Structure of Secretion system C-terminal sorting domain-containing protein:
Amino acid sequence: MPSDYNDISFSYTNHVVLSIDKYETNYNLITHPNHTAIYIDIPMCEATRVRRCYDNDNINPKSGSVIRFNDGVINGNVTITPKDSIGINNPVLIDELNPGLYNIKKDYYDGSTEENVIFKEN
């Protein structure tokens, strides 16, 4: 659920993830990356304060990969197994892995990625 519009009690940085020129006519470029706040620059308008926006934690990745560190340490000796949306969203993906050290990389539609390093024992 989106946060209350008048709630400005959160913190943020000035790191710009996406900036759209005010003369842009390709409206497909206007997106709101997940886990971000939005600032709309309208001079002489009180609404220019940064607002917290809906943060969709329920989106599924579109694809990803399972990276196995063959030596059991994080180095370049790896086996990479690409996964489509069905494979990377498999609820028993980790259960089906052999014991070892892995990096599970998930790629989302908005261009963001998530990586989790796991050590699976017997």
The CA atoms of residues 40 and 47 lie 8 Å apart. The chain has a mean pLDDT of 80.
